[in-house]
Amino acid sequence: ETRTETHGFQTEVKQLLHLMIHSLYSNKDIFLRELISNASDAAEKLRFEALSNGSLYENDGDLKISISFDKEAKTLTIEDNGIGMSRDEVIEHLGTIAKSGTSQFLSQLTGDQSKDSQLIGQFGVGFYSSFIVADQVEVFTRKAGLPAAEGVHWVSEGEGEFSIGDVEKEGRGTRIVLHLKEGEESFADGFALRGLVRKYSDHISIPVVMQKEATPTFDEEGEEEKDKAVELEDETVNSATALWTRSKSDITDEEYQEFYKHISHDFGNPLTWAHNRVEGNMEYTSLLFVPERAPYDLWNREAPRGLKLYVQRVFIMDQADEFLPLYLRFMKGVIDTKDLSLNVSREILQKDANVDKLRSALTKRVLDMLIKLGKNDPEKYASFWKEFGQVLKEGPAEDYANREKILKLMRFSSTHTGSEEQNVSLDDYISRMPEGQDKIYFVVADNYNTAKNSPHLEIFRKKGIEVLLMTDRIDDWMMSQLHNYDEKAFQDVTKGQLDLDDAQTEEEKKVQEEAAKELSGLVERLKASLADKVADVRITTRLTDSPACLVLGEQDMGLQMRQIMEAAGQ
Ligand code: ADP
Ligand code: MG
């Protein structure tokens, strides 16, 4: 070896390695899934690059992943003939963490094993998970297209540093050798490994091969023939077909779940998914997943999002964010289409009319899937709403065309339930509207208690009219964009004239008129003395206990918005 250098890991890598080894101890077999997942990504990247440069195959076009082990040496080897890495790429990819917000993420970890493993799961640990079971990891790799002499040998004990040297490597791609820790020898076992491959990596679209276990042969005396040379063949352990191309009825939930983990880099299960093949005008297959939990970087504008794009089963790109609107950025999945060309680029995606059609079809698909979930499984939907409801609230402004559908997905706290939980849909609200009510009443406040105790609600309570209580930061802004749902206007109870007259009895009207006459003098005096503070003073029937309340004009900005603008210095 020449040019052997020692490099320190980026601080974040060191922290992650340390935390991961401790918190993922009870899930240690996931390292195999991560390494196979990377090998599969590498194969797909090669196939993509080779579309424009066929020589990258170097006469070896059968892409595969091989797993082998050595019981004596206590090693486990995962090898692929994918794209490989150059020296610089090795240093970057296996020495740093390229995810934005990593240090912030790491600072959230508590040291509590079960909490941390949840968090780390959403973060995704990838390659570094090999150090859960190995006390030394070696990587031999050569980038497709580079000469054999430009192979790279990377070694690390997973502590502070790694060393990197040159190595002659005939075959293109990456071989990873794990030197198993004391106590982890059980991974150097054909039966166990086959089980793990089937469990975690069955959906990988290229073959995962292992050497056939030699069946012992016996001589005439019945003695096992230990020394007889046996021809050892490879056999494919997984199904080796792209999961989404298979028919729905042949795919188990477990297979969908593992596939989700592969494409999402999430350790948790998806909450639900939809797998559809569309033929005719447009031809595509989509497999869309709703995660169970929000990722750590849901609110990071830079965070990767979007679907994995395939054209006629050839992987084209990750994070194709043209296929879903921003307010559905939490969705994961795959879109495989015949309606785009194999040499489509990000720039072309932004202009292609077929992309718009796919985007609107997929958006509807997701919204319908969520509406169905809300109907069929309210409990799951409640958990979805907790994780992603706030993001969905960006929807009505971003996606005018789907407003009604998005509104159907909303859940609010309400005076009807008396609980802070956001679990009342607009349809629930409407179904409870008494005869004569034609508006959807709501109040926006900083928090639930303020909303619930708002003096504006007194008259509604008295009349038994339900009011939605909105307390999320985004609510005021969202409601300022909305006019109606199901042909019923939204009405902020703190704004303008409330025409609850329909709901008023004749007697109440009489009482009000008399009061107005009697109090006209007071009203005039109040108007005069508050002239520079309020626009008007009116007698009201809104209040039952409080003597007075402030009301905003119909066109005024809501209180939350005012506070946000004031905080921003406007
Ligand atoms: P992720 O897969 O989420 O990117 P990983 O930690 O699993 O994160 O891998 C980090 C990076 O290392 C990959 O993005 C890839 O660039 C590179 N890499 C890992 N394994 C391989 C492999 N077998 N072949 C080529 N590149 C690889
Ligand atoms: Mg990975």
Explain this structure.
- The mean pLDDT is 90.
- The longest helix is centred in the middle third of the chain and has 24 residues, at 353-376.
- The protein has helices at 11-23, 30-52, 87-93, 102-107, 113-123, 190-201, 253-264, 346-349, 353-376, 378-392, 395-398, 403-409, 426-431, 448-452, 458-463, 475-481, 506-529, 559-567; strands at 5-8, 65-70, 75-80, 134-142, 151-156, 161-167, 173-180, 208-211, 234-236, 270-278, 284-291, 307-311, 314-320, 332-337, 413-414, 439-444, 468-470, 484-485, 488-492.
- The strands form 3 sheets. Strands 1-6-5-4-7-3-2-8-9 form a 9-stranded mixed beta sheet, covered by helices on one side.
- With 570 residues, the protein is of the alpha+beta class.
- The chain binds adenosine-5'-diphosphate and magnesium ion.
- Magnesium ion (MG) binds next to helix 2.
- Keywords: ATP-binding, Chaperone, Cytoplasm, Nucleotide-binding, Stress response.
- Residues 1-346 are annotated as: A.
- Belongs to the heat shock protein 90 family.
Bulk shape: elongated
Radius of gyration: 31 Å
Q: What does the largest sheet look like?
A: 9 strands, mixed
Number of helices: 18
- Low-confidence parts, pLDDT < 50 over ≥5 residues? none
Which percent range describes the beta-strand content?
15-25%
Report how far the terminal alpha carbons are from each other: 64 Å
Average pLDDT metric: 90
Task: Give the spatial strand order of the biggest sheet.
Answer: 1-6-5-4-7-3-2-8-9
Ligand types: adenosine-5'-diphosphate, magnesium ion
**How many beta-strand runs?**
19
Helix content: 25-40%
